[in-house]
Amino acid sequence: EPEVTQTPSHQVTQMGQEVILRCVPISNHLYFYWYRQILGQKVEFLVSFYNNEISEKSEIFDDQFSVERPDGSNFTLKIRSTKLEDSAMYFCASSEAILNYGYTFGSGTRLTVV
Amino acid sequence: GESVGLHLPTLSVQEGDNSIINCAYSNSASDYFIWYKQESGKGPQFIIDIRSNMDKRQGQRVTVLLNKTVKHLSLQIAATQPGDSAVYFCAEGGYSTLTFGKGTMLLVSP
């Protein structure tokens, strides 16, 4: 079964450092998403991406965040200057179509900011 | 009921029992609802979905019920198995986003 692959599985970074979280969506999917989950809390939407541009973003997705599809397979989330409160699981997801909510999620990257 | 911070509502059942997990949603205009299962250390996994023009939808061992009058969604799992132990989230579908609820932990004892 096709999978969304995320790397690394764990990332520890110093406060103020930049991090890049990487995702390889399913190859025939056109819509890509980042969600995050702070420990013990619900999954929260960050951003959706289609046709090389952001479709929607949440209030969480401020100027410190950016996304990019640098080539035909990778989809990245960059946090420019990490804060302690950025510590969370970050999930990438992809879907075939905009109204197809049966997203496929990756297994996540656990980001710990110290 | 609602959970705060680290405290998730927990449903404990015996293997073979039927489980019912409930969810209250907030947006009366939502027209698409999904149940996700999240096992420890993994991402959410799609279980079943339902559109607002339906009251009930069945899958393999799972049934979703939608009551739009009271904005309530439920997931029924028949003959619950230890492998069903996980956190279950309901989610509302927006244009290109999902809004997740806070989750219920299902614990299945053999």
User: Most extensive interface, residues per chain?
Assistant: A-B, 28 and 27 residues
Mean pLDDT of chain B: 89
Number of helices of chain B: 0
Secondary-structure element order of chain A, N to C: EEEEEEEEEEE
Give the termini separation of chain A: 36 Å
What value does the Rg of chain A take, in angstroms? 13 Å
Categorize the overall geometry of chain B. Answer: globular
Describe the protein's architecture and organization.
The complex is a heterodimer of chains A (114) and B (110). Chain A has 114 residues and is an all-beta fold. In chain A, 0% of the residues lie in helices and 50% in strands. Chain A has no helices and eleven strands. In chain A, strands 2, 4, 5, 6, 9, 10 and 11 form a seven-stranded mixed sheet that branches. In chain A, strand 4 and strand 5 form a beta hairpin. The N and C termini of chain A lie far apart (36 Å). Chain B has 110 residues and is an all-beta fold. The N terminus of chain B is likely disordered.
Q: What's this, in brief?
A:
The complex is a heterodimer of chains A (114) and B (110). With 114 residues, chain A is mainly β.
